[in-house]
Structure formats: C-alpha cells, structure tokens
C-alpha cells in the first residue's frame, strides 16, 4: 500500500514543529515540505502549489498569502481528505470549494493564540491612550513632563461620577469576549456588534448590544475581531471611518482584508480619526513604501505577530493540525472542523478507511 501523502504547504519553525511532523512520518505518512522557515510557503504560485499537492491525502500549514489553497489546488488531489490550518483564520482556503468537493477544513483556535490576540489589542489600546511611546521619547530627549503628554482615563470613576470612555468591539467571538473580560475590572462602557452570536453573550460579557452605526458613532476606541469572509471583507470602509469620532482610536488585530486600507490611511492623514493600532494589513508583509510606515505616533504597527508570545505562536496550532491530519487519514472525524456540513458526505466516503494500516 502506498503511503499517505501529506503536503505541508506553509511550514512553520522547523526547530519547534519538527517533532510534530516527524510523528506523522513514523505513523507511515510521506511528508512533502520545504525548508521549514517562518511563513516560507512551498511554491510561490498556484501552478507550483498544485504540483506539490498532486495526489495528496492531506494538506496542512500556517497562513499562505502567495498562493491560497484554491479549488484548483484541491482538485490536484483527487482523494484529498483534509486541509488543516495551524492558525485560527482560514481566509486563505476556499472553504466553499472544499465543502463542495467533500473535503474537511480544520483550524486551530488554541487559547494561547486567540487569548494572545485579545491581550495584544488591549496592550495596543493602552499604549495609545496612555501615550506610552510619546512619554518615553520625551524622557529620552531630556524633557520632563508636558501637558500634551496627558493620557486618557479609560474606566468609569464611581467616586467622581465619571462614566469613562466607550469601547466598541466588532465581533464577539472568542477574542472579542476575552477582551471584554479583560476590560471588566475597569467598569468601562462596552458596545458590541455581532449579528452571528446569541444575545446572551452580550449580557454575560457586560456588553451593550449595538448596531454597527451606533457603535461607530459613539465609541472612543473601536477594535475589530472578525473572521474574514465575504460579509466582513472591507466592512470598515470610507463611510465607516466618516461616522467615527475625530478622537477615535481604531484597532485591527483580526485581518487586514476587513478594512479598506486606503480609506483608513486617508482618515488618519486628514484627521477623521485620531490614531490606529494595526497588527494586520491588506498586503503582507506591509510594503516598504506604505504611507503607514511614514506616519508619526498616530499609528502603532506590529508585523502580524500579536499571537507571538512565549508558549504560543504557531507551534500549538501545528500540533493540533497534525492531530487533525492523523485522525482524518485514519478515517476518523478530526476536531475543529470549520465546514461541518460536509461531514455526512465525508464519513460516507472516508469513514473508517485507515491509510496507516
């Protein structure tokens, strides 16, 4: 019997993930991968990816921007069972095509990653509101105190009967809810918009359920936590920025494609909003000539690594993805299936058919 073929389309750090992938080899899999370097994909275009994916039983990897996992890539593997992502997001996989073809797509919502995103968004918010960078720069330049370095008091003050600022959370999934939990001791007013979660979530996490327009108009900080799909693509556009307060701080640690980046740049340059903290961008790596790189402290930038914390990052997700691949190759239903509607067809086709025996 031929070995089960696993194509690692976008390897992660070899020194950390190596043992995880080696376990698949010892189980009897043929592994196809390149030099595992951080976000170094196998193939830089669809033709190359298709050639590597030919006759694969499983695809796995971290984010791949150079050539997403398209229908054509999956069609190169007639018996493909699963596409397993190391990451939470699957916007670089044509999930609709996978579903149509009877292929499982799994992701890796490890708490160290999604929890790290919430913490990172919280940290970026405080850095801007408390003028952490500006105060540091002033001190190192030999200055001592200045009225223009006063920060913003975030939470409510019962003693002074001050309400505090309003924070708007767009997307009340795992990350949005964790951020709300982090904000709870501050007794801050939280508006949340998410038409896809049950209403009890808003009450449980001390959020006021809001429509998007109200949130955009009333929030002093707006933080975006959505998955990227057709309904969320460029949902924050020029019209959205025009509705925000001129003092608003906008934070995006979800996906760059959820924001109209030129419109955001224009809003920052013309003072329609006060500041932005960004971990994700429309094109990654962020082009060297991007206007965002040339702005002052109105912008706080991070290289899509808000999950890059010790004991987190891609490694836990790679472990989960490998476990999903192993189960799928054994004919078992893996964890964290995104397109669960395909399961009856998948079980009929692959259920109980173990390629490792």
Write the layout of secondary structure elements.
Layout: E1 4-10, H1 14-27, E2 29-32, H2 46-53, E3 58-61, H3 71-75, E4 82-85, H4 95-101, E5 104-106, H5 111-129, H6 132-140, E6 166-170, H7 174-183, E7 189-193, H8 200-204, E8 208-209, H9 212-218, E9 221-224, H10 238-243, E10 249-252, H11 261-269, E11 275-278, E12 299-301, H12 314-329, H13 343-350
Parallel strand pairs: 1-2, 1-3, 3-4, 4-5, 6-7, 6-9, 7-8, 9-10, 10-11, 11-12
Q: If you had to describe this structure to a student in words, what would you say it looks like?
A:
By secondary structure, this protein is α/β, with parallel strands linked by helices. The protein folds into two domains: 4-110 and 312-350, NAD(P)-binding Rossmann-like Domain (Rossmann fold), CATH 3.40.50.720; 114-301, 3-Layer(aba) Sandwich (Rossmann fold). It has 13 helices and twelve strands. The protein has helices at 14-27, 46-53, 71-75, 95-101, 111-129, 132-140, 174-183, 200-204, 212-218, 238-243, 261-269, 314-329, 343-350; strands at residues 4-10, 29-32, 58-61, 82-85, 104-106, 166-170, 189-193, 208-209, 221-224, 249-252, 275-278, 299-301. α1 (14-27) packs parallel to α12 (314-329) and α5 crosses α7. It starts with a strand and ends in a 7-residue tail after the last helix. Residues 35-39 have low confidence and may be disordered.
């Amino acid at each position: 019997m031929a070995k089960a073929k696993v194509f690692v389309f976008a390897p992660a750090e070899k020194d950390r993930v190596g043992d995880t992938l080696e376990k698949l080899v010892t189980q009897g899999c043929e592994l196809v991968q390149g030099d595992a370097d951080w976000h170094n994909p196998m193939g830089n275009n669809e033709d190359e990816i298709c050639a590597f994916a030919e006759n694969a039983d499983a695809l796995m990897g971290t984010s791949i921007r150079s050539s997403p996992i398209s229908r054509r890539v999956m069609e190169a593997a007639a018996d493909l069972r699963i596409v397993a992502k190391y990451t939470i997001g699957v916007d670089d996989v044509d999930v609709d095509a996978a579903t149509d073809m009877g292929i499982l797509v799994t992701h890796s919502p490890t708490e160290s990653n999604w929890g790290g995103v919430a913490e990172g968004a919280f940290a970026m918010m405080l850095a801007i509101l408390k003028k952490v960078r500006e105060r540091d720069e002033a001190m190192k330049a030999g200055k001592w105190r200045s009225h223009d370095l006063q920060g913003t008091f975030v939470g409510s003050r019962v003693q002074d009967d001050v309400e505090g600022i309003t924070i708007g959370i767009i997307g009340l999934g795992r990350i949005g809810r964790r951020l709300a939990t982090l904000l709870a001791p501050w007794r801050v007013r939280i508006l949340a918009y998410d038409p896809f979660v049950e209403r009890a979530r808003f009450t449980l996490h001390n959020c006021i359920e809001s429509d998007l327009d109200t949130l955009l108009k009333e929030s002093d900080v707006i933080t975006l936590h959505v998955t990227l799909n057709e309904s969320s693509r460029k949902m924050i556009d020029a019209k959205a920025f025009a509705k925000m307060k001129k003092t608003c701080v906008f934070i995006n640690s979800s996906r760059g494609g959820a924001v109209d980046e030129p419109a955001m740049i224009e809003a920052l340059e013309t003072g329609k909003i006060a500041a932005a903290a960004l971990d994700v961008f429309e094109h990654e790596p962020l082009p060297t000539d991007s206007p965002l790189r040339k702005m002052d402290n109105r912008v706080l930038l991070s290289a899509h690594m808000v999950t890059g914390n010790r004991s987190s990052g891609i490694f836990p997700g790679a472990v989960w993805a490998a476990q999903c691949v192993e189960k799928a190759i054994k004919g078992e239903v893996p964890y964290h299936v995104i397109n669960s509607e395909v399961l009856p067809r998948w079980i009929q086709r692959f259920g109980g058919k173990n390629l490792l025996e």
